Amino acid sequence: MPVRSESASNFGFSHVISSTTNMIARAVLSNHYHRDHPTERVIPERDPATTKAWMVGSGIGCLASAAFLIRDAGVPGENITIFEEFGVHGGSLDGSGSAEDPRGYVIRGGRMLNLSYLCLYDLCKWIPAYEPYFKEKISNGEDIKTVYDEIMDFDERIKTEAHARLVDAEGNKIDVTTMGFDNQDRLDMLAMLSISEEELGTKRIDECFSEHYFTTNFWYMWQTTFAFKPCHSAVEFKRYLHRFAHEFPRIETLAGVDRTVYNQYDSIVLPLMNHLKSLGVKFVPLTKVADFEYDRTHPHTMTVKALKLVKTDSGEEETLEIDPVNDLVFFTNGSMTSSAGLGDMDTPAPIKLEPDGTFQLWENVSREFPTLAGNPHNFLNRFEEAQWMSFTVTLRDPTFLRLNEMWTTNSPGTGALVTFKDSKWRLSYVIAKQPHFRNQPEDVAVFWAYALHTDVEGDYVAKPMRECTGREMFEELLGHLKKPFESVGATDADWETIRDTTVVVPCMMPMITSMFLTRTHEDRPPVVPHGSTNLAFVSQFAEIPDDVVFTVEYSTRAARIAVCELMSLDESKLPPPIYKAGHSPAYLIQSLKSFMS
């Protein structure tokens, strides 16, 4: 931890204003981001009609790659094959279960969308709407035709305006209209905004701020909104500050968050998969790509000529030869939900440390091409830094939702994360608009909770979170909600009803924020390494300068970059520049006001 400076803390208010203004100006006028300077490309010209594409993984990176190949490059859908190691497609954008299932529904995580997600929203404009949620006309009098229309119309109707963003140990809602910064915090924030990524190097967040910073309202809200830990990379934290600077003035309400109608599997993955299938794309589940074979004709290039396949249900092996000149491989190198494990009401979630096939394959590629394919080992075997846990709650009675709405004054879908800032687990929960699943009955509700500190005992359950069953995790949440709910009239009968009609599924995710770990610039490969002729990396572990990982936008942008480069598309097909409204004078002024609060 840096030592707090008394002289800095005693700066006059006018001096801080002047320093803040000057530092913001320097950050905007100077280019502090690392830029790659590509060497001569070795990618051949390709005929879209005869090009075949092979996708390793069925997460959003590969699904988007297939979409952009069809839409932008003119590759026929029947020329695209998507291999998936597991039985369910969609990667980390998952959602499963049913009301009839004894353990209810499961969502390992939830994703917030934002107006700055230019590549994702562009993709959603191409995906036909799948059973639109609102059957009536949208505001401009036209039918909902695309997933983008559906999202925009939904968020126009269901506004996010959190009324209980932070809660203290006594169950009181905290006034979050002020960020809680002192002068040193402001100077540290501005220093973070203006310093270059090269200067930050492998520093952690907690090496750049004083201890007081981690007690501010801003930190509690920013941390839990994006799942940062003090041990995470200062570079990634800096990127987030730049990327979402336009959200500083409304971080306390999360009013800038866009939501999908249902969970992201039902709202994005399912419609996209259906559209791709209708265009001829082939999906092959339970098939692991265990390794690649390479064309060694040119020693300094990376060219895949065969895929070694393993059927995960039978163990059957096959070598699939591909055209090393005309064919393409899009590779999900690593997954944030790798090794995730589920428990149930009476069983803790297992802790599985062995990475899945995507990491294993990335390790193989890295051994073959250590200067081109990044360093997967940096993101492995750092369990305590990378992990956290979530749990999905299925309610078969309306009592919990009724009490929650009375206390928060937010109906389902209009609030945001509720964070118990003093909780030992750093526990948060969020209730989406119901239904959250397409197959969810009206008398069932589903919500999601997560916590960042799983190695310590709870405030109400004398166990570390990682040792708790679903029942025990729910008891911890109810302990924090006891005073809030009783303040709006909760009775003993209400508590009994809630406990008797609720099912909880815990989920341990050992790799969930491994993208946030400290790293060097070389640890993540470029989307298309400069020596690659037909292989692209389209995961959260590829490097896209300036952009932020742990977003659906990141993988979607990687997909679009990959298609543009490997198919040598013209400038009109390039992805739009990364959204940087935080660099506009209007947003800078608003951010400055937030810094001063």
Automatic annotation (TrEMBL):
A Pfam entry, by short name = MCRA
Which biological process annotations from GO are given for this protein?
A: fatty acid metabolic process
Name the SUPFAM superfamilies on file: FAD/NAD(P)-binding domain
* Range of residues in the leader sequence: none
In alphabetical order, the GO MF annotations are: FAD binding; oleate hydratase activity
Designated name of the protein: Myosin-crossreactive antigen
